[in-house]
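Deliverable D5.2: sample structural annotation.
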Amino acid sequence: MLDRERLLRISELDGAGINRLSDSELDALTTTVNAFIDGFPVQEEGVKNALKNKDLGALGKSLAVVNTVLRSIYAEKLAGTCEYTLASIADVQYDDLEAFVVEFLKAVSALSIDLQMADYKEGSADEPSEGAPQQSKPGNAILAVDDRHFFLTAIKTMLQGTGYKVTCINSGAAALNYLKNHRPDLFIVDIEMPEMDGYELAGKIKEAGHKAPVIFLTGNARKDYVVKAMQSGAVDFIIKPVTKDQLLERIGKHLAPELPEEQS
């Protein structure tokens, strides 16, 4: 169950506001948070449908619902972003509005997943869950697995010059073959792949004795989807569409690159 300490670790939530809550108010908040987790996929679909249909009226109504929920769970920064978007709907180019809303939805999805992870993991603040390190470990070898070449190319491009060495493979079977002779420091695995999906691959990675953290690529914050991923061994998620800042932030939680020494 989410408690005060776990909620305070979620960077998108207003810690000062949460700290002021009484125990009974905190219990009510955890109920509201669970309602947000369950309800956001439907709200997200409403926003996406409005974008698809270029219906600004429906978009405004859908975003207003999301904004109310974000305020109710103390996600003040995201709520402020939502309110800014609502105020700007009629004043910006549609393509710019669409891009901004897509990024906003991705941030809210990340919040939902972070809350689900905090709720799922067992252990106290003093006893972190196995597979969920509190600080990154040295290493730079990353194996990225996705059946779509576009995503692999994007990940490799984003990580150029960062100190990480990325190997890209486009199937679960090929990844398992690669792992017979290599031990990556971290895995980035797409969930939705043909023949062997990310859930199955993560399980086989663990069965093969690899203990490096697994980060899943996903565009879905639905509760059953996220819980199944964590049961498969995921320690974190990267929300599609992938951006360099998000990629580095999520990887950096688990892996500190071994940068080469500068030449004198």
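Annotation notes: Residues 23-53 form the longest helix (31 residues). The chain has eleven helices and seven strands.
The annotation will be released with the project's public dataset once the embargo ends.
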